[in-house]
Q: What sequence folds into this?
């Protein structure tokens, strides 16, 4: 069985990238293949993180919907009047997890696209100029950049719920101050009409 018949990650990476078009030093192909493997693994883990976030998000939303049936009637009582707004804030917070994670994945994929173009242009320049294999190995620092961005993406996916809560809190605080200002203006207008 040859490598082509076996398949696997390496064959997939080799077939779906520019590695097959690179000619020259085997170290160049190894460098490109290593970079592609790191990108492939990071992209796979990122998509896996989105699946996990979606499962947890769906569970939380189902629980919030079940409790929402009780929260709406309870918000009629004066001591529990804020329960509906708190429930709605939590629901919107959890609902935004998936869109934020897709935005993060899109940014990471765009960064990796730019990195791949830069790496292949450097490799192509090293091949055409007849550089030695040590010069091509110096391009290995690009793998460190890819790994660093991958690490940042893992941290980003882990903090999607926190980013969502920041977004919701900033939005509700902004809306709350506007509503408070309009309410105070309406109250002053009503008081001036009553006093006149």
A:
């Amino acid at each position: 069985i040859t490598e082509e018949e076996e398949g696997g990650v390496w064959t997939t990476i080799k077939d779906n990238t520019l590695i097959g078009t690179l000619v020259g030093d085997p170290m160049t192909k190894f460098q490109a293949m290593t970079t592609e493997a790191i990108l492939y693994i990071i992209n796979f883990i990122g998509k896996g993180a989105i699946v996990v976030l979606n499962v947890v998000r769906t569970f939380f939303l189902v629980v919030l919907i079940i409790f929402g049936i009780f929260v709406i009637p309870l918000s009629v009582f004066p001591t529990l009047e804020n329960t509906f707004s708190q429930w709605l804030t939590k629901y919107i917070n959890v609902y935004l997890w998936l869109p934020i994670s897709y935005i993060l994945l899109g940014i990471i994929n765009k960064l990796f696209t730019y990195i791949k173009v830069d790496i292949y242009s450097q490799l192509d320049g090293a091949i055409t100029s007849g550089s030695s294999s040590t010069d091509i190995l110096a391009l290995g620092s690009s793998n460190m950049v890819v790994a660093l961005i991958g690490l940042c993406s893992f941290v980003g996916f882990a903090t999607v719920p926190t980013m969502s809560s920041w977004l919701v809190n900033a939005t509700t605080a902004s809306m709350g101050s506007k509503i408070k200002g309009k309410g105070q203006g309406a109250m002053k207008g009503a008081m001036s009409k009553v006093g006149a």
The chain has eight helices and no strands. Helices lie at 3-6, 9-16, 26-74, 83-95, 97-128, 133-137, 141-158, 160-195.
